[in-house]
Specification:
14 helices; 3-stranded antiparallel beta sheet; 383 residues; elongated; 4-stranded antiparallel beta sheet; 11 strands; alpha+beta
Length: 383
């Protein structure tokens, strides 16, 4: 048996030959060493002693590296684990450079008003699923809205997941915790007659916005960024940007990276509305709707909201309490689904982050039912 430097292991053969005869012996070499867990392990089949020693050296180096990595991980876990959640989250927040201004503002608000007051002083290494569950119950007791509860839980999960990657936790403290379930309420959708009344009482700008939201499914911030050059085909409009309420300038689309776009159906009447507005009011670099006080600036969505509220207070269009400006966009979705257009297409045209969001808002508008499915399948089976 050949003994190597301490801790590295040994090389030997399972035969009756002495070590002096190993070079002439045809039996394979065997190595014996202790694994990282301390268990004695053997490997055989090495034809030469050089190969056996080389393999032992590889194993020893890997054990040393793993041990060093484990020590570094523990040191890092100790350092960050002693930090308060507020200290850790503020450092994590500095790395969220990809967020749009509105998203960054929303994150800061959630941290400041909902997460830090409850968890800010807690040490990072003290989190487990019970702490997270207590946090959700605290929001419930405070009658925090379900949407805010859901968003706060998502941000807390993002911070704790980052901490898990650093080695503070072996398991994510949010594992096994039932998150707040936010389900959007049913949308209030204008009838065709009510939509016609809204168009009649509004000015040219409101009529154009109304057409874009109800006919193309645009958000109000996207509609005020309408550009005649974005008509890329007779029946297709390409939505490329929106007016950001924080920066008050044109910006990337919601849930999209800079430069990304989505294309939506452009009904002939809506295309005619865009072209007629351009002919009567002109455009600036293709943009049709500009700030009435400064034509060099984009039109701000809040000005549109103010006009909507004035019309609603005057009750000239007979708008119910639940109807908001966004209801015009709901009209588009409802019409698409009633025409049996696949919900996957509707979700894509509306720019929803996920199909689940479209489904939760508009599921009740889909014409399908168990009864109609059974009838359709029966017809197909006997045809």
């Amino acid at each position: 048996m050949k003994t190597l430097p301490r801790g590295m292991g040994t090389v030997f053969k399972r035969c009756n030959h002495s070590s002096d005869e190993w070079s002439r012996c045809q039996h394979p070499y065997v190595i014996r060493y202790r694994s990282l867990s301390g268990r004695q392990t053997e490997q055989g089949g090495f034809r030469t002693q050089t190969k056996a020693v080389s393999r032992l050296s590889e194993i020893h180096a890997a054990k040393y590296q793993a041990s060093s990595s484990s020590d570094f991980r523990q040191e890092r876990a100790d350092r960050y684990g002693r930090m308060t959640f507020k200290e850790y989250a503020e450092q994590w927040r500095l790395g969220q450079r990809h967020l749009a201004p509105s998203s960054a503002r929303h994150l800061d608000s959630l941290l400041k008003h909902h997460i830090f007051p409850v968890l800010g002083s807690r040490r990072m290494n003290s989190f487990d699923h019970r702490v997270v569950d207590d946090f959700i119950r605290t929001l419930e007791v405070a009658d925090t809205g379900l949407a805010t509860q859901s968003n706060a839980f998502d941000k807390l999960s993002a911070v704790l997941t980052d901490a898990q990657r650093l080695g503070i936790y072996d398991f994510n403290p949010t594992d096994g915790v039932k998150p707040p379930q936010y389900t959007p309420g049913r949308a209030t959708i204008p009838t065709v007659e009510r939509l016609r009344n809204i168009r009649q009482i509004g000015d040219d700008r409101l009529r154009l916005i109304c057409d874009l939201m109800s006919g193309c499914g645009m958000r109000n911030s996207e509609a005020v960024a309408v550009n005649i050059d974005n008509i890329v085909a007779d029946n297709v409009y390409r939505i490329t940007e929106q007016v950001n309420q924080a920066t008050k300038d044109y910006d990337r689309l919601k849930h999209r990276k800079s430069g990304e776009y989505r294309e939506v159906p452009l009904p002939p009447r809506i295309r005619q509305s865009i072209e007629q507005y351009a002919a009567e009011h002109g455009s600036t670099d293709g943009y049709l709707v500009r700030d009435p006080r400064d034509s060099s600036r984009p039109f701000q969505p809040y000005l549109l909201q103010n006009q909507w509220q004035r019309l609603k207070r005057a009750n000239r269009a007979d708008m119910p309490d639940g109807m908001v400006l966004y209801s015009l966009r709901h009209f588009f979705a409802s019409r698409c689904l009633q025409l049996r257009i696949p919900i996957t297409d509707v979700a894509d045209w509306m720019g929803h982050k996920s199909l689940d969001m479209t489904f939760r808002i508009y599921r009740h508008l889909m014409p399908g039912s168990i009864k109609s499915a059974a009838e359709s399948l029966d017809f197909a089976l006997v045809a």
